[in-house]
What we know:
This protein is an alpha+beta fold. The protein contains 14 helices and 22 strands. The chain folds into 3 domains: about 5-235, Rossmann fold (3-Layer(aba) Sandwich); about 240-400, Beta-Lactamase; about 425-555, no CATH class. The radius of gyration is 31 Å and the shape is elongated. It starts with a helix and ends in a 21-residue tail after the last helix. This is VWFA and cache domain-containing protein 1-like.
Amino acid sequence: SIDFSDVYLATVQPQPQYVVIVMDDGNSLSSNQLKTAKGIAKQFLNSLSGRDRVAVFGLASRPSFPRDPRDDSCLPNSLVPATFEASLFFSSFVDNLRQEDASTNHSLGFQTAFEMIENMIRRSKGVSIENAMILYISRGLLSSLTEGRDIMETISIHNGRLDHRVIINTYAVIDDGKHIMFEKSILQDIAEQNFLKYEVNYKSPKPVIARMMVTINSTKDLSVSVGRFYLPLNKSAPESPIFSLPYMDIADQTLTMSISQPCFHGKELIGIMGVDLHMEDVVQDVTYYNQEINSYIFLINTDGYTIMHPSFNRPMKTRIQPMHTDIWHFENKDGFARIRSDMLNLPEGERELHIKRGNTNATEDNSSKSDFYAKYIWKRIENTTFIVVLKLLTEVGTTQALEHLHVSNDPHLVYHRLDLVQPNDMCLHRHMPATSDTSTVFLSPKSFLDPFEHLSNLETKRMVQNYVAYLKDDTRLITNPGLKSEVKSDVAATGRINTEWLRRYHHRLNHQEESIVRRYVATPSGVFRSFPGTVIDKTSDPTKTDWFQRAGEFPGHVTLTPPASNHSFGTMLL
């Protein structure tokens, strides 16, 4: 799980670290040495934060990668963000490494590591990368006396191309009581990039940054050496606050974001201070946005990670550590990459994307396809790393506008909290109060002006009576109990279907049909009317269900969704 170490590291080391971890798993290592090497690799993975980038591979006669290069062109060729998920995946890969029955090709290992860094720099698109690190974990046993010079030549050629921006730290894994003088020597020379000793030439306007070799026979006190390895990469911590990515807080099991800031005495860093915020507080205006039909808001940070998106569960419903994912995974339309780049680099802006969307029937010709324009409007939130984006979808052609009509309110309105305000005829459905006399109305959190306050407060009989009185009122004299303006008209409009539902229900009873069909209707404002009426979980949101979103995606069509088990709405097939 994620703890405060990630927040601390991101605050005191805000500059991203670029690390390639190479772990020797050739036949020269004993079982104890292999176990120690795995412990070192995993300790380094745990020392990274989400701002860093990392690559990991095992090395014997050839490299072994976390994923087959034929299946994934990214992991074997570059560095990826050191997110919680990536570190977990790489740690599992390290745990599963087995000793290969082949000697270690050290030169190939360094060539592969440097090529990964070169690919990352080439793909960084103008991002300045001052230094990177190769962490080499090995016994250091060479297959021939000349291999040492081959290794140094490989390092000289590749690091020379990078102006010697890459530092190398080495771990010599040993067993107690064994003579390893030569192995320690070569790993020391590699860390210091001692080209002169091997008569290897190098050309670079910048000096070589010599680093260190550490001899180790167990994983005890590893953290001390890990910290020393980072020293050349550390810069002074800025005084601006650091915003973490959302994580599950261990203490109260809620989705949380930390805002932290380094504290200095003079120029000396003495610690950090911070505050934890519930994500429900931070993003409620984003998660419950419903101002425009065919529009939504999402929140990203300046690295492109998605903080909140309609595809996500609401923070209050999140129970597992979220996967930190780039926004292009959710807005995966041709042409969005350019818009994403503008979002990350411009403080505000507006861009339009032409989207072709096919009809639901694959057998129809192309004339049935609809073209859409997706308009992205964004603005960076001042003094934060957040970017808020509004996406508007507009169909090409004439847009039909809805006419505002006055609809009289339903005098027989029943709110879904049958446990608080009981109707005349009530039964139990799945151990919950229900009624077949009429439909009931549920108001999701997005129906309220302050969704989080609604979720935080316990609904009482008095509150329910206030809702019903306001929704029934035609005089406009009763005070709004905190509902959005469109909710009242949506409740009235959906009430017109109640008569038809009752007619069909009684028709089935007259024909002695024992089963009952659950029927429901929902609006973008979060109003949900269902028959038979039943109590619904307060945190539910019908607009987030598959059936609602699919129907909205294909207007004018009858859509089908597979059976879905839902604790609020029951098992259904649409």
